[in-house]
């Protein structure tokens, strides 16, 4: 088997293996998370010959939110929302074929699962990268620029050993993921060490690394009402012993007005379809911004199962009249934080009552989500990008970034389009469909057919335009 970081293709400017520097890839992907991996998998084995691709990632191997790969956690989308099935169910990179290759088809069938363990999804993606020659790890991209004379992008990457290579591509897709978001009051204290020299303030992305030590503290506060916050709260509760005396006191604070379940009704899920994306893109920018804030339960809520398990844990701990060693406070904003003694004091405001109060705690886990950020390696291309008024990408219906007219190549993005395409941007349900859309644009032909209609719901008034007006996709190549 060829490992990803041992595979080289045409386009290495340093002429690895004697290849001519003038050759270029059709597409280079920066970042190998689920979304770019979906594109890599769909591009593999295209009938009639697909585009020549290379995908680069700084990590030594694939890993997907390792800090939250806790035992018992499940994916929030069905297994059909794997890397390829929603666009090409015949692909050898499907989750079902992964089960077959690992002799797990019968156990999976008998388990009657529709939602799979998160750890198995991570292992499935790793299996794909280990068998897909276009994936190269230990390759940190340090610069992306446009060579106008050669009409190609230059992508420079460095290995952990310091080896530098530059490759060329006609088109580039950014799938660099999102960065953890931490509230302003917590930032000066992030990664603070307590008296035991262990981290006391951290983002949930690092929770698994510190969970054992956190479970040994007297008091832990978790911020954020999404799935990650709920899973951290549940895990800490399970570290309390049966009598309720051992383990940390668990406090859960959230800005949202309730610890609410994610919208999971059949018609509600139609917000994660191409139909809704077309409707959303056609709306004025101000209305799109408001909708994203209002639709938080579509992509920031908690699964009903996890909320039920938290309730069950609290119920068990109150048998016989015992007071639970936990507190749940929605509608709370953290406005300040200071270190006192061996712990911290949070200044909080109840948003509906407009009342201030203080919380004393030994540690804080900030499960406050992620956001797209401009990668540093884009500095060399930044002046050629047509940024919007807020410094974000302008993105067309094919996920192509608006660039200066001097750039004849195309730059695409994945999971950086919440502001232009709506709540489906970070959702795995649309991953394969979006990758197929990009692949068709890269190939300049229909490589994979994508549905014109996928929802029963009509978004918008009857007879309204089904696609964005020219002013929304302004600047598209």
Tell me about this structure.
23% of the residues lie in helices and 19% in strands. The protein is of the alpha/beta class and 477 residues long. Strands 1, 2, 3, 4, 5, 6 and 17 form a seven-stranded mixed β-sheet that branches. The chain has a five-stranded parallel β-sheet with strand order 8-15-9-10-11, with helices on one face. It has a three-stranded antiparallel β-sheet with strand order 12-13-14, with no helix packed on it. The two termini are 40 Å apart.
| Assembly status | single chain
Biggest sheet overview: 7 strands, mixed
Helical residue percent band: 10-25%
Strand content: 15-25%
* Rg on CA atoms, Å: 24 Å
Order of helices and strands: EHEHHHEEEEEEHEHEHHHHEEEEEEEHH
Mean pLDDT: 90
Shape: globular
Catalogue the unreliable spans.
Answer: 1-21, 469-477
Quickly list its features.
477 residues, alpha/beta, seven-stranded mixed sheet, five-stranded parallel sheet, 12 helices, disordered N terminus, disordered C terminus
Note the topology.
Elements (H helix, E strand, L loop, with lengths): L24 E6 L3 H10 L9 E4 L38 H7 L3 H7 L6 H14 L3 E2 L3 E8 L4 E7 L5 E11 L4 E2 L20 E3 L3 H8 L4 E5 L3 H12 L10 E5 L20 H8 L3 H10 L1 H4 L4 H14 L8 E4 L2 E9 L2 E8 L4 E7 L1 E4 L3 E2 L38 E4 L4 H4 L9 H13 L34
Parallel strand pairs: 1-2, 1-6, 2-3, 6-17, 8-15, 9-10, 9-15, 10-11
Antiparallel strand pairs: 4-5, 5-6, 7-16, 12-13, 13-14
């Amino acid at each position: 088997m060829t490992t990803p970081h041992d595979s080289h293709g045409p386009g290495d400017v340093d002429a690895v293996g004697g290849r001519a520097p003038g050759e270029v890839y059709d597409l280079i992907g920066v970042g190998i998370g689920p979304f770019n991996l979906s594109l890599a998998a769909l591009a593999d084995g295209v009938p009639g010959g697909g585009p020549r691709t290379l995908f680069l990632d700084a990590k030594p191997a694939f890993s997907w939110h390792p800090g939250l790969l806790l035992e018992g956690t499940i994916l929030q989308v069905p297994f059909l929302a794997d890397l390829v099935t929603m666009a090409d169910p015949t692909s050898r990179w499907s989750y079902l074929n992964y089960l077959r290759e690992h002799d797990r088809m019968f156990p999976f069938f008998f388990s009657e699962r529709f939602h799979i363990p998160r750890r198995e999804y991570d292992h499935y993606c790793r299996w794909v990268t280990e068998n897909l020659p276009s994936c190269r790890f230990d390759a940190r991209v340090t610069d992306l620029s446009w060579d106008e004379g050669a009409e190609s992008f230059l992508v420079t990457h460095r290995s952990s050993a310091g080896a530098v290579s530059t490759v060329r591509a006609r088109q580039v897709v950014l799938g660099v993921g999102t960065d953890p978001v931490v509230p302003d009051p917590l930032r000066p204290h992030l990664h603070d060490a307590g008296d035991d020299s262990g981290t006391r303030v951290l983002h949930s992305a690092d929770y698994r690394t510190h969970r054992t030590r956190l479970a040994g503290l007297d008091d832990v506060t978790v911020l954020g009402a999404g799935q990650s916050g709920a899973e951290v709260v549940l895990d800490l509760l399970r570290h309390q012993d049966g009598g309720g005396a051992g383990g940390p006191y668990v406090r859960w604070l959230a800005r949202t007005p309730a610890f609410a379940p994610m919208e999971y009704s059949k018609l509600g899920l139609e917000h994660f379809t191409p139909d809704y994306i077309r409707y959303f893109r056609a709306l004025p920018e101000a209305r799109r911004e408001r909708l994203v804030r209002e639709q938080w339960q579509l992509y920031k809520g908690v699964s009903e199962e996890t909320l039920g398990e938290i309730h069950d844990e609290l119920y068990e701990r109150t048998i016989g009249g015992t007071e639970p060693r936990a507190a749940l406070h929605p509608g709370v904003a953290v406005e300040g934080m200071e270190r006192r003694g061996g712990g911290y004091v949070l200044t909080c405001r109840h948003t509906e009552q407009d009342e201030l109060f203080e919380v004393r705690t030994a540690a804080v886990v900030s499960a406050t989500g992620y956001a797209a950020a401009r990668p540093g390696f884009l500095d060399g291309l930044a002046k050629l990008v047509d940024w919007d008024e807020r410094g974000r990408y302008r993105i067309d219906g094919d996920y192509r970034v608006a660039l200066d007219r001097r750039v004849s190549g195309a730059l695409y993005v994945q999971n950086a389009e919440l502001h232009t395409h709506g709540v489906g941007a970070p959702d795995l349900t649309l991953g394969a469909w979006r990758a197929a859309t990009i692949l068709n644009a890269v190939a300049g032909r229909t490589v994979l057919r994508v549905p014109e209609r996928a929802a029963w719901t009509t978004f918008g008034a009857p007879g309204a335009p089904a696609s964005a007006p020219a002013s929304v996709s302004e600047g598209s190549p």
